[in-house]
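Lab notebook page, bench 4
Experiment: in silico fold of construct C2
Operator: M.H.
Input chain length: 780 residues
Purpose: comparison with the prior construct
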Amino acid sequence: MKLKKAVFLLAAGILLFCASLPAYAEEAQSKGLESYFRTGDHKPYISGYGNHIIAPDKEITRSEAAQMLCNLLLYPPETAESRFSDVTPGEWYADAVNSLSQIGIFNGYGDGTFRPGQNITRAEYVKALTSCVPAVEADNPFSDVKSTHWAYRNILTAISKQWINGYEDGTFRPDQTITRAEAVTILNRALKRTGAGFAEYRTGEYFTDIGKGHWAYLDIVEASGAVAYEEADLPPVDTDAYVRVTASSGLNLREGPGSGFGSILVLSNHTVLSVLSVQDRPWIYVQTSGGVKGYVHSDYIEEYRPNTDPAENIRLSAQEAAVPQYKTFRLDGVSSPRTSIRWSSEDDTIAAVSSVIAYGEGDESCFVIGKTPGTTVITCTDYTGKVQARCSVTVGAPEPVRFAYCDNNTAAAGETANLVALTDSSKDSVKFIVSGGVQQTALESDSYRTEQRGGNTVRIFQCPIRFSGNGEYRVQVYSAEKNEPYTEGESFSVPVGTAEPKDSTTYGNRQTSNAMIELIMDYEDYVPVIRDDSAAPKHPTVGYGFVVNTNTAFYDSLTRTEARAMLVETINSYYGEAVNQFRSEHQLKMSQSQFDALVSFNYNLGTAYMEYPSGRYLFETILNAVIPPSGISAANPCSATLNVKDADLLETPNKSGKVVRKIQVNSKVQVTAVKRDAQTKETWYLVKAGKDTGWMRAGNIHLDIPSPVRDLNYVDSMTFATYLLAYHHTDVCEPGLLYRRLREAKLFNHGDYAQASPSNPYSTKNTYGYLYPDCMKAYE
């Protein structure tokens, strides 16, 4: 059974209003709890919510109860199909609910529902536990439990077993929802988790939201094996020491000692911090090498002892750097031999060290932010301070415009779009000069909205525009401070065309659709502050997957609008342009969805595959997509070459066809017929290879014809998907990369933007029957 979230799973029962008990439950009543549940041991059976939270006074849901009881069964049954209309297969509690329902421990409501998110009452909880023991009469000490209550006999049985005590006012409050602390207290007694060994087992975990004075503290220790923070056996952390981040995906540096405080920035894995105070443990007050102070949780740091041996030399990636005000510059430093290094600025008011990413001992990237115009020096030293390397940093005036774009990246003639410009907080107006169409147009705006992230404030201006006709429009953007003249800033192009079917292929250049931009934003994490890429170390990223190369200036601490604007600018100017160049060089007719899929591939893996397609199966398959000559037949065959790799000759044109034989790459064949399936987008050639005749996938075959018309609607979908899905590796096979390739295949072959979205439940399903790599069959 899969548990999809960490929850504090407490036993609670939902044996609701059954006229008669199933056979399993009747037998359970005769044998007792110990015949069906673990009793008498002291192994933990609950866990917290994460971040050391136990929430002892929080109520319990029915789904949590079901999972807990199922975990405690000695012999869990095979999971049955769902018996309740509101229990969806695949939910984290579904197997538990259905298993316990199958054996009679749980029954739902008369309307066929289970109501998994509803809290459980004290009476329901007792009903569940007493369903496994014979009913026993006892004196009733509770003023609010009447003989007419539906759980009256169950409550009396629990009294006789000394499982329950009630409240000080003499009530039991049967219809009140039960808390976590109350539940474990009752369950410990029911499971005979008392006496010798009670509350002695320790897991090494601790909770910060419960103290030794809580009335149910020992029962919670017994149930979880975890203690209050004040009793935790934690390694010492001294002030004036160093610690290092151990969170591979980054660690929030927070404004205060708790997860409820805002994040100042995200610290990359291996970042070294100076400890300033430990009085708020488990939250540690620290300072970065750039002087930024904040709190980190002790679970995600380790003690760090810098290598203070002297270095022979330190090499920097640049000795001089120029950066506009508000931008950040990546400067790399490496010591030899590899000993610890640290960074500083001679004048933090001009340029300051904002963060450092450590890739290993003595191998770091220092990120320097331009604060005010001027020149200062960034120094990298070993811990002796005797070996130094220096970089002179000149901070220039801020850029007039940070980013600018059209909010409809594939605008259509006659439709209204918005021109958008982002500036720093000193700019009061912007102007767009639009060239193209009938005449030049000037648009101005002094209206803006503001976004902030950390110390970064950005102003966002926009002007509506309606493009009069098809063509490429050029937009030059200017900005101005109050009562000052406009200064020229960013420029960009807007290709305007006519709306077309998603599978319409043309020779013209394209831009990435808004739908694809949104999908890439879904594929990439929003990273507001620079951090290393855990999947590709030494490739720090910011925004939506923007890789910051060595000696590059960029905007850090990005707002979401800035991150989107940077993504649009990067795709249009580089990754989309690479696809256009590939299309133009090879004279390809391409649809919008095919263009979008290739942009996504490039953005994720880089443009080198497309720039050098020779010998790469995926791109050879694309170049093999041609409109076959008319009239091909056995009497009028078309000469062709198997040019990608060895491939099977099949008796029938389907993936389950019987293999006639394997044909070697570079073999010459004769194509005598073509079969194209408009639904599956598969293309097959009937070929004659020597004495044998059979079917082969068109994606592996180059037709030897003069002046071929390359049309990507003739790409064989299965061959393309097979070769595309192969790009799922970093150092190891990555399911996340496999699913991204799957979404790109659906987009390229079928224009299926819906299933290309991670929010679509079918986005990770092989709905088009592609052939998965052997190493990834488990994820099909």
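Observations: DSSP finds 14 helices and 38 strands in the chain. The longest helix spans residues 560-585.
Next step: discuss at group meeting.
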